[in-house]
Design a protein that fits this description.
This protein is α/β, with parallel strands linked by helices and 152 residues long. The protein is built from three helices and six strands. The chain has a four-stranded mixed beta sheet with strand order 5-4-3-6. Strands 1-2 form a two-stranded parallel sheet. It is elongated. The model has no long low-confidence stretch (mean pLDDT 83).
């Protein structure tokens, strides 16, 4: 039989699994974000120990990413009380609808729950604004007030 028709293993036909990209810039986190990173690493380490050989490859890749993020994490200082900054909770009006957002690190961002990354366009537009100030952004987003800085 010709060598062209033999297959050495099933793995040689699989799509390569590349490393997860690390976001550029500083890895700022809130205290909550630091705890989330530690929990994520612990969960992945447990899965790595208990997983099958196939699962271990995927988990090991994820674990490399989260360990790197955990080692490079920098706890951000508490935000000033009168200015929007990393860690601030802010009430904004989006197309007439008020909602609360918190400006957090890249890995703890969950837009559906109101946590946006400090590197997002909206967060960058809001940072530096003061309570009561209006900040133009896109389709009529304006800052109404800083609600409360997150607890330390």
């Amino acid at each position: 039989m010709s060598v062209a028709f033999r297959r050495e293993s099933d793995e040689e036909h699989l799509e390569p699994r590349f490393e997860l990209p690390i976001p550029t810039g500083p890895n700022l986190v809130t205290a909550r974000g630091l705890a989330l990173l530690a929990r994520r690493v612990a969960d992945l380490e447990a899965r790595l120990a208990a997983g099958s050989d196939e699962e271990r490859k995927a988990v090991a890749r994820d674990l490399r990413y989260w360990r790197t993020r955990s080692m490079t994490a920098t706890l951000a200082p508490p935000p000033p009380a009168d200015e929007i900054a990393f860690g601030s909770r802010v009430r904004v009006r989006v197309k007439g609808e008020a909602r609360e957002i918190e400006i957090v690190g890249d890995d703890e961002a969950e837009p559906a729950t109101g946590r946006i990354a400090f590197s997002s366009p909206l967060a960058r537009a809001l940072m530096g604004a003061m309570a009561g100030e209006h900040v133009a952004f896109g389709d009529g987003v304006e800052v109404i007030e800083i609600v409360v800085p997150p607890s330390k």
